[in-house]
Amino acid sequence: MPDWLITGCSELLTLRGSVPRRGRALAELGLIRDGALLVHGDRITAVGPRRRIERLKEARRAEKLDFGGRVVLPGFVDSHTHLIFPSSRAAEYEQRISGKTYAQIARAGGGIRSTVTNLRRASSSSLRDRARAHLRQFAAHGTTTLEAKSGYGLDWKSELKILDVLHQLHQQQPLDIACTFLGAHVVPPEFRRRPDAYVDLLVKRWIPTVATAGLAEFCDVFCDRGAFTLAQSRRILTAGRACGLVPRIHAEQLAHTGGARLAIELHAASADHLEKVDGGDIRALALSNVVCTLLPGCCFHLGLGHFAPARELIDAGAIVALATDFNPGTSPTLSMPMILSLACAQMRMTPAEAISAATINPAYSLRLHDRAGSLEVGKYADLAAFDVASYREIPYYFGVNLCSLTMKRGAIIHSKKR
What is the CATH number of the domain that holds 396? Predict the structure, then answer.
């Protein structure tokens, strides 16, 4: 791997500064005009104005990579995905267009449970090949780190299959994958009449085994109407935390259940969705270190008119992040630039706030902010270059992929012909 002198950055967004970003600090991008970086191995060794960096003696030995006036920023950190699934749910998309609700489709055997049925039949190799293709597309859109959940197996053999595939992918391809155990996605069909028995199984057997074997770093639960109650969610996340798995939670998506307050109570890394939070929740979240991970792709794909209250959360001082929620049913997108577009147009975030919420804050939620999410000396050389004149144009051109190059740990993993 060569050492790199990276120049030609019309705007170099370093995201240096406080971690995590709150309030007005969310719009601070650490922008350097005509910026440059030096990369040695997988790490950044110098960042600053081009003229200063080019005078360093190390720059003379490095291979020059000139971006020709492109905007360069940290690689996106996508902190909420359901990467491993066997097929799309395009038929349900048509049903929703025809007027059926998500809840109606789920009650008829669709939704998450239909993916569970198909995943249980799928081979590990087919799941791995499908996910690897998706990871290449993540990289092509500028993502260099992501979180991925289990949760489409819901029996031990199938959940283990997902976790094993995630471990293999983390080792075999360049993107970093943080793994989350989501055995509590929904109650599986065989426990439909005995949900507490399933919770017992999670708490007493599966979670301790996952933690002891090092199969995941986080434990998640879907705390919502039609999934797990607040009491059940508390049991599950408390058991995970006792075993060393950091809590995450799907909260306040379909109904207001108290999941956001539970995230605060259990010092969760992240509370995700939050479309149904109220004013009291917002004030409480602002006083906590829980990252509010907003998922506008899900609202968009479901055709909902109500998005999470990003503006209120930011103005209150909460830690806000953005993620794709990539999954086969409710958010089949792996484009973080599209998520930025939705955040700006539908949730009234500024382009600068959206970029911070897609880089340094999600890195903080994944406990990776010491190595990812910003372009600073000592951190991984994870970056993306965009063929735009200003960073403001990244969300402006919605549905268009303007990422021209992605670098992960100093290696070019995606490049368009220039």
Answer: 2.30.40.10
> Of 365, 385, 406, which residue constitutes the final position of a domain?
365
Tell me if 77 sits within 8 A of 372, measured CB to CB. yes
DSSP conformation letters of 97-126:
HTT--HHHHHHTT-THHHHHHHHHHS-HHH
Assess whether 68 and 97 both reside in one domain. no
Q: Are residues 136 and 16 in the same domain?
A: no
The pLDDT profile of the chain, 418 residues, written as one tens digit per residue, is: 789 999 999 999 999 999 999 999 999 999 999 999 999 999 999 999 999 999 999 999 999 999 999 999 999 999 999 999 999 998 888 888 888 877 788 777 778 889 999 999 999 999 999 999 999 999 999 999 999 999 999 999 999 999 999 999 999 999 999 999 999 999 999 999 999 999 999 999 999 999 999 999 999 999 999 999 999 999 999 999 999 999 999 999 999 999 999 999 999 999 999 999 999 999 999 999 999 999 999 999 999 989 999 999 999 999 999 999 999 999 999 999 999 999 999 999 999 999 999 999 999 999 999 999 999 999 999 999 999 999 999 999 999 999 999 999 999 999 997 5
Query: Angle 156-172/112-121 helices, nearest 10 degrees?
Result: 80
Helix, strand, coil proportions of the chain in percent (round to 5)? 40, 25, 35
Q: Do 141 and 282 share a structural domain? A: yes
Based on the structure, what is the number of domains in the chain?
A: 2
Query: In terms of domains, do 70 and 83 share one?
Result: no
Residues 299 and 356 in one domain: yes
Note whether 149 and 198 are same-domain residues.
yes
108 and 199 inside one domain = yes
DSSP string, 225-275: TTSB-HHHHHHHHHHHHHTTPEEEEEESSSS--SHHHHHHHTT-SEEEE-T
User: Would you mind telling me the total number of residues written for the chain in this entry?
Assistant: 418
**Predicted structure pTM score:** 0.96
Domain containing residue 135: 77-365
Residues 404 and 323 in one domain: no
